[in-house]
Amino acid sequence: MAAVTSRLARFLARTKTVLGSPAASQPVTVVIGNEAADLDSLISAVSYAYLKSNTTAKSTGREYIPVVGIPRCDFALRTECPFTLRTAFPTVDMEAALTFLDEIDLDALLAADRLEMVLVDHNKLAPSLERFASAVVGIIDHHADEELYGNADPRVIRVVGSATSLIAEKWIDAGVADEHMEPGLATAMIAAVLIDTVNLVEEYARVTDDDRRAVEFLLPFARDVAKTVSGPPVAASLATDTDQSFLKSLYAGVHHAKVSISALSAVDLLRKDYKEWVIAGYRLGISSVSWHVGGSTGWAARDGFSNLRAACSKFAAERDLDLHVVMTAFDFSSGNSTAEPARGFERELLVNFCGKLADDAGKASAVLAELEKQTDQLELQLVEEPDAGTSRLYLQHNIRSSRKQVQPIVERILAHL
Ligand SMILES: [Mn+2]
To answer: What sign for the dihedral angle of Cα 195, 201, 204, 209?
Structure first.
């Protein structure tokens, strides 16, 4: 194997050695993204742990370890993540260098009093990790503040397009030596910001000045081919473009990878980008899917609506859900064979009642009535009632509301049932 010339890859390899060594005794700070483990979570965890290893760790001997919050076998489902790593680091197997949730014994670290955790891209531990609440020492996030872990330091929670933009700000503040921000890392960070801000396009209301500032800071590093020892940092086509076409082709590549999912099974589509909450005794799950249910090239046309419904019911039953919401988002104008430039970015909401709410028609219809009342935030239009009473498909005309906005709405509704 060729010598590893990426400092980031060497850093990741060292963290794996620490985890693999029974004799290791140094304190560990696990930097972890949210349970959906999307590109923003992955890259913000890696870039923040690496920053801290280049700054704080030097004086404390503490090891900062980025952890991807899913088992390794699920990584391939996040199609945009492996794609981004391969594009940003064409000569290094960055995926192999990562640590996944099934490769670290957090309980043993906690029992040995060696564990601290920093949450990036979320500010409340996933239900499956709640037992580590006492270990949370830092938060850098862009979701609604759940007001937990009041002593966390840093405790940065600001609604910007991408958590990675907040990490970029930490890099700017730290002013560490330029060689640490290698072209591949800068490219991967830009990719995360572009995907979460729909390519910095104003009308989708995701992008903020902080996201633009992050990209401005990262761009010269991403474009600086001279800083790589082992060849071009990005695919040759990206390296020779101007800044604007660099951003455009990077976004197009990552976006295409993200939406190239129509061959995935229904259950893989549902678990690819999935988060769960327990609210007032009700278990809520929300799956985000970068495709569309309706239409001739949609998911329902592929599987049939009853099969799609059955897959959702099975998925919900396995997780003991009382409410399962499938949020779809699809850019019909983006360059692919089925592009429909006349249609832009569209969202749908598929609401499925299960568990306690499937058994209580009164409460289920109360939830629907409340959702339909959200004429500003959601602007729902009923498309289909595939299974009267337990399932409804809507077009969500307010395309500005992503899961980050929809989840608190559903939480309020469940809390007042
Ligand atoms: Mn995010």
So the answer is: positive
For the chain, the domain total comes to 2
- In the reported structure, the alpha carbon of residue 207 is separated from the centroid of ligand 1 by a whole-number distance in angstroms of 12
Tell me, yes or no, whether 99 and 25 share the same domain.
yes
365 CA → ligand 1 middle, Å: 31
Alpha-carbon gap, residue 299 to 293, rounded angstroms: 5
Residues 275, 388: one domain?
Answer: yes
Task: Give the domain range for residue 163.
Answer: 7-257
CA dihedral 18, 154, 272, 88 (to 10 degrees): -70
Distance 31 CA to ligand 1 centre (A): 14
Cα 285 to ligand 1 centre (Å): 17
**One domain for residues 319 and 402:** yes
Ligand 1 midpoint to CA 118 (Å): 15
Which one of 236, 257, 278 terminates a domain?
257
b/e sequence 166-187, b meaning 16+ C-beta within 10 Å: bbbbbbeeeeeeeebbbbbbbb
**Same domain for 272 and 220:** no
Distance 163 CA to ligand 1 centre (A): 5
CATH of the domain at 103: 3.90.1640.10
Please, which residues bridge with residue 347 across strands?
329, 396
What number of residues does the chain have?
417
Task: Encode pLDDT of 361-374 as tens digits.
Answer: 999 999 999 999 99
The CATH number given to whatever domain includes residue 335 is: 3.10.310.20
Residues 244 and 276 in one domain: no
Contact in structure between 386 and 305 (CB atoms under 8 Å): yes
- Whether this prediction's pTM lies above 0.85 is answered by no
Strands 391-396 and 380-387, by their bridges, are antiparallel
Position 379 in a domain: yes
Q: Tens digit of pLDDT for each residue in 110-159?
A: 999 999 999 999 999 998 999 999 999 999 999 999 999 999 999 999 99
Render the burial of 201-221: b for 16+ CB within 10 Å, e for the rest.
eeebebbbebbbebbebbbeb
Using the 3D structure, point to which of 257, 288, 319 is the last residue of a domain: 257
**Tens digit of each residue's pLDDT (9 = 90 or more) over 183-197:** 999 999 999 999 999
* Residue 70 · residue 35 · CB < 8 Å: yes
